[in-house]
Amino acid sequence: MAVVLVLQARGLGDLLTAVPALRALRRARPHDHITLAAPHRLKPIVDLIASVDTMVPTAELGDLRWDAPGPQLAVNLHGPSTESIVQLEKTAPGRILSYHNPAFPELSGPEWQTDMHHVDRWCHLLESDGIVADRRNLGLVPPVATTSHRDCVVVHVGAGAPARRWPADRFAAVVRHLLVLGREVVLTGDEYEREVALNIAARAGLPISRVLAGDQNLIELAATIAEAGLVISGDTGVAHLATAFGTRTVLLFGPTPPRWGGPPPHLLNRHAVLWAGQLGDPYADTPDPGLLRIGVTEVINAVDKQLNNASATQSRRAPYRRVG
């Protein structure tokens, strides 16, 4: 059996933008054994994709350990960096499919384009090798929730980088508004964001029992996002989860634009995407100035519109009631 090794040693959001590419690879090579080199913590989501046979735990570049015979094909869904290609070369593959890097003139992949949606980027790489990819094939089957928060509003308080973190006091103001509306609200995040979530809850008057940040594993978080009525989030992996599950969102973008990593155009009817139109430094140690231009009032207006749209949709779907 031929083995295909796919490198994607990044976070949750990057994995989810690669879903259409992984599924295209599976369809093109149905009898091959597809191995994904990615962080082991993402395995519950990889299982939902249903296109990967095994995983090689690879938390970051440099961690890839390959003890088996060389794969027939190595696919670089990590990026065209020299280190990523070197890591794949060490596995002794029959062939490498990657975006072009001048340091490897023998690799004839396409040129890397910065101004391209991440989903398009990985599909385009496969298409350059004759593999048809469906960019709309992003959906995931929701996992079963052990503790239900159906129709709640999820406020995801964190982000993987300081530049993408909207201030806690602004999140607290939005939560207070939701509580006045009588909405059930839960705060999500990882264990490092629990203190921020507790601070937001205290400012907003939200019970500590509604702070789920740091208390959920990845599959529990995914289930909460899947059954939520609305998700409010920055540019994070949780935003991509909401897109995959068809959950309505209000998304706050900056410093990178939504045309790179936001919901694809064919899904925008379910998402309110806020962006000041200002590019910034994604590696900055403080919130991006463009992100800070998105104010509380603007977010609340988007939240109210999304909640009203959701209510209208539910009303149209409600069965007729028999009178008398």
Care to describe what's here?
Helix 2 runs parallel beside helix 5, helix 6 packs across helix 7 (194-204) and helix 8 (218-227) crosses helix 9. Helix content is 35%, strand content 14%. Residues 316-324 have low confidence and may be disordered. The protein is elongated. The protein has helices at 12-17, 19-28, 43-49, 82-89, 118-127, 168-180, 194-204, 218-227, 237-245, 258-261, 289-292, 296-317; strands at 3-7, 33-38, 54-57, 73-76, 96-97, 153-156, 185-188, 230-234, 249-253, 271-275. The strands form two sheets. A five-stranded parallel sheet has the order 3-2-1-4-5, with helices on one face. It has a five-stranded parallel sheet with strand order 7-6-8-9-10, sandwiched between helices.
Biggest sheet: strand arrangement: 3-2-1-4-5
Major sheet: 5 strands, parallel
SSE arrangement, N to C: EHHEHEEHEHEHEHHEHEHEHH
Q: State the helicity in percent bands.
A: 25-40%
Secondary structure tally: strands: 10
User: Overall pLDDT, averaged?
Assistant: 94
pLDDT < 50 runs, ≥5 residues: 316-324
Shape: elongated
Which structural class do you get from the secondary structure elements? Answer: alpha/beta
Oligomer: single chain
Question: Strand percentage, roughly?
Answer: 5-15%
Q: What would you report as the Rg, rounded to the nearest angstrom?
A: 21 Å
Alpha-carbon distance between the termini? Answer: 67 Å
